[in-house]
Write a structure and sequence with these properties.
The protein is α/β, with parallel strands linked by helices. The protein contains 15 helices and twelve strands. Strands 3-2-1-4-5-6-7 form a seven-stranded parallel sheet, with helices on both faces. Helix 13 crosses helix 14.
């Protein structure tokens, strides 16, 4: 089957789909991944076809106020819809869509009569069991959580309104709002596969049939790959260090955060590996090493703990490695994943980036590294995750569609 996967956003929003695509390709499917040009090497390195999407999600993060943010997000998804239409090929037989690319992807599926599999990295459907993942960590009770979940979807549909209108006009489809298209798909009970572990977020009991939590699909990396020599040398020179990285967050704060991290590590008597990331962290010394992008699957199992922004992918990678975390959430769904780490017992209470100090980070690190309960909890989740096969579950869904 000829499969087009579409994913947009930051590295953490895109990288897992390279591993999913590689799994589908290994099963004999012809797979392309449509995403931003900056990720082309990542996509091609996984052996997948690359198709460009024009917009970069970082551009939507520059707006300061809520109204400006909504306007910037609307412009981003409007370009995204047009770009996805350009990326689609008449020979594509299946669309696999991330949460960000799903609303425009549904219009293409309708226009070309192509089936879809929605493959999300976060829970997006309303549930009484927790509030929407982008609304913070406070539960409003079962009724309140569901109501807020429905309201959140209305806000998403509002952001996509212009994109969907333009795309349906371009494709010759009858006018329909994003909410109407979403409602039709819900009535049809179309499947949504969620790429996170049920050991981390169990499937809500009030979800309809077809909404399944299948386990993570992981970023592709060379199975014969290894860490650079300088990293191996650093690891061999002392006790396991602590990883510190903030992914695509905290742009322009690298100098401050690097100084803070090094001070916290030294206060706690720990060595550190700093990942530069978008913030541009950088420090040097016998007890600290700065690295660029490295596969978490290779690096995290060698760490004593991981300090990170609590993005969905980094959270999962730390748990997969069975090491405790110190979550430092910034925005969006990060407080949700940080709270899950704490609830699982794999991390002390989160320290939001805006409240981060060397003293607070050192105290949290001392607890995470030296109190065995955190490592034990992380290891227990790791064992559950090892028995899961999220990419295999998606492959099964693809092959059932192919047989149908």
């Amino acid at each position: 089957m000829r499969v087009l996967i579409a994913a947009a956003g930051s590295y953490g929003d895109v990288a897992p789909y390279t591993g999913l695509g590689a799994r589908l390709r290994a099963a004999g499917h012809e797979v392309s991944l449509a995403t931003h040009e900056s990720f082309a090497p990542l996509v091609r390195g996984a052996g997948l076809g690359f198709r460009p999407l024009p917009a970069d999600a970082h551009a939507s993060g520059a707006a300061a106020g809520r109204r400006e943010l909504m306007r910037a997000a609307g412009a981003f998804v409007r370009d995204l819809g047009a770009g996805l239409a350009d990326a689609f090929d008449d020979g594509d037989e299946l669309l696999v869509l991330s949460a960000t690319t799903a609303p425009p992807g549904w219009q293409l599926a309708e226009a070309f009569d192509v089936p879809t599999i929605d493959a999300y990295l976060q829970p997006t459907h309303p549930t009484g069991e927790f509030a929407p993942v982008v609304s913070g960590t406070r539960s409003l009770g079962r009724w309140g959580n569901r109501a807020l979940g429905r309201f959140s979807l209305r806000m998403v549909d509002r952001v996509y309104a212009d994109s969907v209108r333009d795309l349906r006009s371009r494709l010759g489809l009858a006018a329909a709002t994003p909410a109407a298209v979403r409602a039709r798909r819900e009535r049809a009970g179309l499947p949504v596969l969620h790429g996170f572990s049920p050991a981390v977020v169990p499937r809500p009991a009030d979800w309809r049939a077809g909404l399944d939590v299948v386990g993570n699909w992981w970023p592709h990396h060379d199975p014969d790959g290894h860490l650079p020599t300088r990293v191996e040398d650093f690891l061999a020179a002392g006790r396991p260090p602590v990883f510190v990285g903030f992914g695509s967050m905290a742009a322009g704060e690298g100098e401050r955060l690097a100084e803070l991290a090094v001070a916290a590590l030294r206060r706690a008597g720990l060595r550190g590996v700093l990942q530069s990331g978008r913030a541009g962290l950088e420090a040097s010394g016998d007890d600290v090493l700065t690295v660029g992008e490295l596969p978490h699957a290779l690096l995290f199992p060698r760490m004593a703990a991981v300090v990170h922004h609590a993005g969905a992918g980094t959270t999962a990678a730390g748990l997969r490695a069975g090491v405790p975390a110190v979550p430092v959430p910034v925005t969006a769904d990060q407080p949700f994943w940080a709270a899950r780490l704490t609830a699982l017992g794999a991390a002390p209470a989160a320290v939001p980036l805006r409240a981060l100090t060397a003293e607070r980070l050192a105290d949290a690190l001392t607890r995470a590294v030296h109190e065995p309960a955190y490592a034990c909890a992380a290891l227990a989740v790791s064992r559950s995750m090892a028995a899961e096969d999220g990419a295999g579950r998606v492959l099964g869904a693809v092959e059932r569609l192919g047989r149908g």
